[in-house]
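Reposting from the mailing list since nobody answered there.

I have sequence plus structure tokens for a pair of proteins and want to know whether others read the tokens the same way I do. The first protein:
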Amino acid sequence: MSAKPARAWHLPVAFGACEIKVDRAELGKDHSMRVAIIPARGGSKRIPRKNIKYFAGKPMIAHSIGAALASGVFDRVIVSTDDAEIAEVAAAFGAEIPFVRPPDLADDHTTTAAVMKHAVAAVSRGEDCCTVACCLYATAPFVTAEALRDGARLLEESGCDYVFTATSYSFPIQRAIRLDPNRRVAMFHPEHMNTRSQDLEEAWHDAGQFYFGKSRAWLDNIPLFGPTATVLALPRHRVQDIDTPEDWRRAELMYNALTEEPPCAPSAR
């Protein structure tokens, strides 16, 4: 399966605050689509313009678009944005921008689930209907085409509503500590003060790369972190949230370490 050619950026009529209706009966028809939806608003605060800030030689969002296109999983790769510059950059790297995200879904308090519900409804009208939608973050430079293929396969095989990337904590969360206002230490779970690490249950966290979901699940507000979801496990060295300048620098160091050529073995004398 290959993505359709990208459409030129033309500002469509904004949907505003009106509710987009979709006939759920359409979602079961044979002319189904798998769509990648990349949320990318223009108002990032801690790292201004981070979705199009250059990372490893190209705009950050280009890494996600490139992986989605290379995966061969999606019929369409779409960017949901309120920002014309982000739209232009995304289109230049092969994504479609078929609608403008309304302002009420582009503030600091908007949830990813709300953005996905709007986007799924927007692309589920007409002959071709979106049956599977993958939320792919714009700031995911470690995402790979292979992982996207694995995620799509796992969604189909598992029968779950969602599949998302996750990785394990490197340290037992049961032995985490807190600092009070005077910077004095207390354990969150003091009952595990002397419990051996190997005797504690392993804990996992969201890797922040992508979230495959059935369209019905997005539209019906089924919780992502619940019993109808499973995870695609990633190694810790391929996971990094990018929310602060420190995160960005750490991600650059990780990316360089992963992509640099390994040293050549010395030749025999």
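The second protein, same order (residues first, tokens after):
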Amino acid sequence: MQPSDSAIHPPASQYDAVVVDPASGAPMTVTTLAERLANVDVVVVGEYHGHHAAHLLEARLQQALYRQHPNQVLTMEQFNVDHQRDLDRYLNDESGEAEMIEDAAAWDNYRASYRPLVEFARQHDIPVVAANAPATIVRCVGRQGPGYLDSLPSAQRQTLPTDPFLDTPDYLDKFVEAIGGSHGTKKASLSDRMMNTYRAQLLRDNTMAASILGALRSHPGAQILHTTGTFHSEDRLGTVALLHQRAPSLDIAVITPVFWPFDAESPPSPSIATRGLSVLHPATAGGIQGPGARARGHAGPVRQVPHQRLRLITPNFHRRSTHSGTPSGRGH
């Protein structure tokens, strides 16, 4: 019996991934995915930092989206807003790559994971936006609390969004679960230190949401491609929920990675895949950064697990017409 064209077969290596339509469960090509996303305002690609398949998909999707919509802007968690000038100098051929990597505090895995995105943007005059909050400020908020922002010089404070600790329902639950807490833990029961760590996480998410909106204002009609760790986007929480809260009219598509275990004969169940949940813990799997480490200002992957293969990547096509403003579902 011949296999169905719609059958999902596990990728053969860590460089491969399958894109799946969450509505039908059928596989999609990257070209078909880009066609589906042609009129979306913001495409958010969640990634497992350092995972080969995730980064290869990002590069291929960037190119496919560009063919559909050449007016593109790349916004990246992997660069901080205080290094925008350093990034621009490189994009404008005013500095070399090695200088940019050092001056812009590029992540340790820049050459292997993000160089293709930046080089494609550079070759096609695509703006690249350093979207994340400054690492030193995030670190200090994590240690001293939100009041630290009051001590910043005006110029530094202006690089951060208004309402830098804007929050959304369910995100705290996800955060507590990720750091080893139990579901349903309330804010009142968290230590001051842990709440400061959470606020540092919110500062990152709010800064990225504000950076995306700034890119849309600066480049009318552009489509935004945003790359970020999946913790910031899965279940449409984190940066995505804050972006909806700040600009409810935006059409936002989210692509979420899902692990398909080696010993599983079939892909993750539709309920898991559609919600974008991973079967592995995000603090240890595939080089993922846990939120605690990110809040302390790490600028790269915490650890790598090179033998895990990314089996499934699921696009989420929820738009403003279906988004309730209160994300549902639980994430890692």
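Reply #1 (J.P.):
I read it the same way you do. The CA atoms of residues 62 and 117 lie 7 Å apart.
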